[in-house]
Amino acid sequence: MEPYRELARGLGEKGVIVLSDVEHVIMKSDRSLTEVFKLFDLIHILTTDHNIITRITKEVIEDFASENVVYLELRTTPKRNDSIGMTKRSYMEAVIEGLKAITAADVDFMPCDDTDARSGTNSLPIIGSICNGTARKKIYVRLLLSIDRRETTEAAMETVKLALELRQFGVVGIDLSGNPIVGEWTTFLPALKFARDEGLCITLHCGEVPNPTEIRSMLDFLPQRIGHACCLEEEEWKKLKSSNIPVEICLTSNIRTDTISSLDVHHFADLYKGKHPLVLCTDDVGVFSTSLSHEYKLAASAFGLGKFEMFQLARNAVEFVFAEDGVKRELRELFLFPGFAAWCSLGAIFGWSIPKKAPYKLDILAVARPSILLF
User: TM segments (predicted)?
Assistant: First the structure.
């Protein structure tokens, strides 16, 4: 959590906050769901500066690229801060500047027309080069703009319209997130319907707390994905399974917030056994001190998944990303590389360190490169 403390210290020096008042919130390692959202509130304060937004966007993506992630969806809530002249648009412009500032990897965040050929420098590196470290890493990054559950219908609509205006910069969808005990589903429904009608993909934080009426309404909406799905009763559980809506699974987040008591009873096992669409995700890497590598390792060890199962889990995630079809084709081709079977006999699984940066309220869907799955 040191990056959060560093940002807080800087704002403390400017007199924006009192460091001693917030330091205990930052440094606490085990947090309940309520405490996590208190920390997110603090992060919102820490990230209402254009330069900070640019910096941490850059650092987040570089961390994931160094981890061999090939496709990354970042979701962030556009914020307004009249005291420093920040609008939702200028906030997102700062995010985009962070994307442009990356030098440690090649970043593809500008969607191509699906009829355009992706070749040469725009194509993914040869897999053998990835494995031996001779190729420069490339990562596809797409953005989801989050509607905060504290917002009004008008504010939610503003976020959706901004997402539509920024499609050329890699914005592919809308997320509904924030404190699950705040706000009403009907408040955000008009904006979400508008987003869907305009072709944006939708993912919803769903079932973080028990709320059968809202959960049923969310499932009836048929978003392209939902996140967590931890607190579903039998009726909602059946509805989820019959709908086949892909679920973003965040193992570490669910355990550390006590949303799920232990991995032994985590719903991943039931969904996986039933061949329900699943994607392993990180939730917020900084808040939960995790990484995509760690989430894959955790799933493998907790649920007894072998190298073939882990490969398929990563490969199947390609079908649930929000990127354009051209990117999906390239990701599929990466997993079809004929030499990959030989790789799977190499090394030990997941021998990498957890990124220590990423002081950013981001929920992340990431597709592992095959090299992240070496055994």
Answer: none
The pLDDT, as a whole number, for residue 38 is: 56
Q: Which residues of 172-196 are buried (b: 16+ CB within 10 A; e: fewer)?
A: bbbbbbbbbeebebebbbebbebbb
Domains of the chain, CATH where assigned: 54-373 (3.20.20.140)
Percent of residues, the chain, with pLDDT higher than 70: 69
CA distances from 231 to 210, 215, 250 (A): 5, 9, 14
Asked if residue 176 has pLDDT above 70, the reply is yes
Q: Specify burial of residue 170 (Cβ count, 10 A radius: 0-12, 13-18, 19+).
A: buried
Catalytic pick among 73, 208, 248, 295: 208
CB 313 within 8 A of CB 268: no
Query: Is there a catalytic annotation at residue 208?
Result: yes
pLDDT digits (tens, 9 = 90+) for 110-130: 887 654 434 433 444 434 444
Element at 322 (helix H, strand E): none
357 token code pair: 């940066």
